[in-house]
Write a structure and sequence with these properties.
Elements (H helix, E strand, L loop, with lengths): L15 E4 L16 H15 L7 E7 L5 E9 L11
Antiparallel strand pairs: 1-2, 2-3
């Protein structure tokens, strides 16, 4: 189990981190992000670039609280959905 580290940040400033399918800090995407959009953008870029298998592509997000603990703000799930029909050529 990966330890739940407290974020290092200025008081009142939130930061985000990505979590894996087991709700643990993500091993490949282990940075702290200043916004939810930046965290999700990094995860989507990683999935698209590495063509990650389904189980590893289940990614969630945690946000730091004012007291320095982490709360889940997005449960792990797929970030990309496949097209249901082919696009015309």
């Amino acid at each position: 189990m990966i330890p739940r580290l407290r974020p290092t940040k200025a008081p009142g400033q939130r930061c985000y981190r990505l979590i894996d399918a087991c709700c643990e800090p993500h091993r490949q995407l282990d940075g702290l992000y200043p916004s939810l959009d930046e965290a999700l953008s990094e995860a989507i870029a990683w999935i698209e670039h590495d063509e990650v298998e389904t189980q590893r592509s289940l990614i969630g997000v945690e946000v730091s609280t004012g007291s320095g603990i982490w709360r889940t703000c997005r449960l792990p799930g797929p970030l990309l959905c496949p097209l249901l029909c082919p696009l015309p050529a």
